[in-house]
């Protein structure tokens, strides 16, 4: 886990963010990995055993739809603020087993998403409060991973933690891009040793 967080940091954090205190919250399928950078290095690293797949399964169970369809409607129609979705907006879904089509309120979908995200948010907020209390530093939260793409999740986290929050550029590839950068830096270091 820590290696993924180090790789992500190379791709998405500036030197100032690493120095002044920044959280990386990587919302994967099964887990949410959290790292806090301060004074240029990792100060805290932890894992919350909950990720985007939990939201998908809640949608599948709550709406009685296949899991692949739950994932699709989560990505395309999901929002963590159901109150911002007009009551009249509907979503067509396929009932699991029978294959029958039916329509449901988009607001219902978003309430299911909000409930699971609120649960995750309680855990993330607890960690950020504890870390900020101990370090008195935090310039922001950067979201990465597939779960970071959930509409308005960054706003919800910022409102809950009081810490400026943004979604990283291309959150699905942060680990791969950062790993490439880290390998390039290691290669340079090895070249320096070879020259000596």
Determine the N-to-C terminus distance. 34 Å
- Overall geometry: elongated
Overall pLDDT, averaged? 87
Instruction: Estimate percent helicity.
Output: 40-55%
Based on DSSP secondary structure assignment, what is the total number of beta strands? 7
How many individual helices? 7
The percent range for strand residues is 15-25%
**Biggest β-sheet description:** 5 strands, mixed
Question: What Rg is obtained from the alpha carbons, in whole angstroms?
Answer: 19 Å
SS-based class: alpha/beta
Elements, N to C (H/E): HHEEEHHEEHEHEH
Strand order of the largest sheet: 3-2-1-6-7
Low-confidence stretches: none
Descriptors for this entry?
single chain, 196 residues, alpha/beta, five-stranded mixed beta sheet, two-stranded antiparallel ribbon, 7 helices
């Amino acid at each position: 886990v820590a290696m993924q967080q180090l790789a992500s940091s190379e791709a998405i954090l500036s030197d100032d963010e690493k120095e002044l205190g920044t959280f990386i919250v990587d919302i994967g399928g099964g887990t949410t990995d959290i790292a806090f950078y301060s004074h240029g290095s990792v100060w805290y690293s932890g894992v919350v055993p909950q990720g985007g797949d939990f939201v998908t399964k809640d949608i599948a169970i709550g709406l009685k739809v296949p899991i692949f369809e739950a994932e699709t409607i989560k990505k395309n129609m999901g929002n963590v603020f159901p109150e911002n979705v007009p009551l009249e907006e509907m979503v067509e879904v396929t009932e699991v087993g029978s294959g029958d089509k039916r329509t449901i309120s988009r607001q219902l979908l978003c309430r299911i998403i909000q409930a699971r995200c609120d649960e995750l948010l309680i855990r993330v907020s607890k960690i950020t409060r504890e870390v900020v209390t101990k370090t008195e530093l935090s310039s922001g939260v950067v979201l990465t991973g597939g779960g970071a793409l959930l509409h308005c999740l960054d706003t919800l986290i910022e409102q809950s933690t009081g810490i400026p929050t943004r979604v990283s550029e291309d959150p699905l590839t942060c680990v791969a891009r950062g790993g490439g950068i880290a390998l390039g830096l290691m290669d340079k270091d090895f070249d320096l040793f070879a020259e000596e």
